[in-house]
């Protein structure tokens, strides 16, 4: 039932071809991955480095296509760049020559909105993430956390139904990370938007998500999917005190560790 799902990954395999010493070689990054992502859910993808998490996001965004199987977004097979999808990557990708406000309203500008309308539309988001007063700053005049906030609201202001986030808080210090995780939840709660979040941080994945999907080492397959039963709204700062948190964390970690151990033995 496509009305229930935002993204349907159906038996997807991906083989990348590379050239080594003049020879073409194939590398299987994903093998027969199926995953039904429900409308409005927050799902995290975790697993060893190189297991194909970003490749799944790229397929959903239409930046690359599966070698086998198919991906449906809102019931439509992805064959080119997907519409209605926001993508937040690890790098903030802000334009250095534009001020913060001109960066976060860039997409609205492309949509033909005038400067006054753009400012009005983005003002509540700027206020919500504490960037008020920094509208005229250039990216190099902002901290890493501020740049990350700007890049997230640049995506949110376009009001996408689906948001793909690839290790968005990766380069940040632990305190800023936690603050941003809480801000992200506060921004997302009640919007009905679907979020697919890639992370290496297991606590982050549990704190934010409705479900966590664990991938095997390459070629990536789905190893397990966990429901995260903790009530919302969540308090990211204290989530590790909730009953059941440690057990769930240990269970998921043991799945991931199994994959890491296998990778190490084979290396
Ligand atoms: N365009 C490409 N050409 C060739 N190989 C690729 C390409 N994109 C990804 N790969 C390979 O596919 C595998 C999966 O990559 P991907 O970036 O999806 O993994 P990941 O799970 O997101 O990794 P990480 O957690 O380290 O970011 C890796 O071995 C990577 O080198």
TrEMBL record:
PROSITE patterns: ABC_TRANSPORTER_1, ABC_TRANSPORTER_2. Keywords: ATP-binding, Glycosyltransferase, Nucleotide-binding, Transferase, Transport. Residues 7-242 form the ABC transporter domain. InterPro entries: AAA+_ATPase, ABC_transporter-like_ATP-bd, ABC_transporter-like_CS, ABC_transporter_ATP-bind, P-loop_NTPase. This is Mannosyltransferase. GO terms for molecular function: ATP binding; ATP hydrolysis activity; glycosyltransferase activity.
């Amino acid at each position: 039932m496509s009305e229930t799902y935002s993204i349907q990954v159906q038996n997807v395999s991906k083989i990348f071809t590379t050239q080594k010493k003049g020879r073409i070689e194939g590398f299987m990054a994903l093998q027969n991955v199926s995953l039904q992502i429900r409308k409005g859910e927050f799902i995290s993808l975790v697993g060893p480095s190189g297991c194909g998490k970003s490749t799944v996001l790229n397929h959903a965004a239409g930046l690359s296509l599966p070698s086998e199987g198919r991906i449906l977004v809102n019931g439509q097979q992805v064959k080119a760049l997907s519409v209605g999808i926001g993508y937040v990557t690890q790098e903030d990708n802000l334009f250095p020559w534009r001020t913060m406000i001109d960066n976060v309203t860039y997409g609205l500008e492309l949509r033909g909105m005038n400067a006054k309308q753009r400012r009005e539309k983005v003002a509540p988001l700027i206020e919500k993430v504490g960037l008020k007063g920094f509208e005229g700053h250039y990216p190099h005049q902002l901290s890493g956390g501020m740049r990350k906030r700007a890049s997230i609201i640049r995506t949110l202001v376009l009001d996408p139904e689906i948001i793909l986030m690839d290790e968005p808080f990766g380069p940040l210090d632990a305190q800023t990370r936690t603050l941003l995780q809480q801000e992200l939840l506060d921004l997302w709660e009640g919007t009905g938007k679907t979020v697919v979040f890639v992370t290496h941080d297991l606590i982050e994945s549990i704190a934010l998500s409705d479900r966590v999907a664990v991938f095997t080492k390459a070629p990536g397959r789905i190893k397990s999917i966990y429901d995260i039963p903790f009530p919302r709204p969540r308090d990211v700062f204290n989530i590790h005190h909730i009953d059941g948190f440690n057990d769930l964390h240990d269970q998921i970690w043991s799945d991931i560790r199994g994959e890491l151990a296998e990778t190490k033995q084979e290396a």
